[in-house]
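Researcher: Please predict.
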Amino acid sequence: MGTRKPSGYEPKSASGLAAVHASFLDLSDDIPDFDFKAVPSHGGVFTYSTGDDEPIITLASQNIRQSVRYRLTTSDETRSPRAQLCDIVRKLWWTPAYSTFEADLVYLSVMRSLRPNDYRSMIRFGPAWFAVLDLKQPLPKWRVTSVVEPSILNVGPFNRRGRATEFVADLEHLFELCRDYSILEKLPHGQPCVYHEMGRCPAPCNGSISLDRYREMMAASARFATGDVAPFIDRTTCDMNKAAAARDYVAAARCREIVGQANTLAKAPGRYGVTFENFKYLVMQRGPTRSRVVPFFVDKGVIERGDAVRVREICDHVEPWFERARRGALTSDIPNQIRSEHVWLVAHFLMKQKTTRMLFLNANDLPTPDKFLARVNAVFAPKKRASDTKTTRA
């Protein structure tokens, strides 16, 4: 994510700030008289530092020059005491970012490096959540977590912890799974709970069904949770018809209730992916000018930035972009915490994409090239200004 080196640029390889920012400027001791034209006017993330490269504050802005000038030169009468930065600021570091999505991504990376102990409290989006299951465990159990565990099944992400928790509870209800694992762990001497008395649990805890049979039930819930919904619904519908034909209307009603619950659960609200493995997106964001866009490729928590392209020239890039999005990321050695945070970021923007100028396309379900071009043009093509249109008198 480089930028053109501005006037006064000096390499500074030993500094931690040099490792996270693309460029920097030494600021004059007399900041009010400094020529701020050397500071870029595009968007980005910037950090003020002392002359010894100690970070003071990191901010994101749609116009770095404007923000820096305001914060460093505002008169004493209007600025707050903590905003009196000109007395201590001696350097300005920055990395360009041309959209809110890119700025949040850069800010996350910078703060993670500069403030590793408390950066999470400084980012403006919270966790996304997964329902996870390890079928290799002796007693498999659904759990909810915000940090992905790639070696097991991760269903989601969900935008809220409560929705992931509800999803797990609905799975347990639909497939009559154990709700109290402290009892199940005592098998075959467990004391069945109230769900067994209600006919909603087959009581593997006391050996009423075998552990192998229970593991099959857990596997069935995993298949359903990952999108293989039709077999379960078809089988339950068949059971409903058989019960109705046999005039066992209680059983038929129960099957009809299960089918309704299954259809509702298959469309769980707040769920932005089937599984972590399938969480792949082609993200289109605005670029350094009104006429350019930047593609980002998301694959299992890895985010790679493509080159900026003019909107009118993207037809030459669609197929390579699609191929790259489907292929996935080239980088794999990224810690699970960073992968997870990138998923959180994408999920945060998936919630708001309808109200902002951005485009998120699931790489597993990309549109045809012509529909993609139409959507990109609808979102990003420069709109004609009134002054661009000439009118003539009749």
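Model: The chain has three domains: 16-122, 129-266, 279-380.
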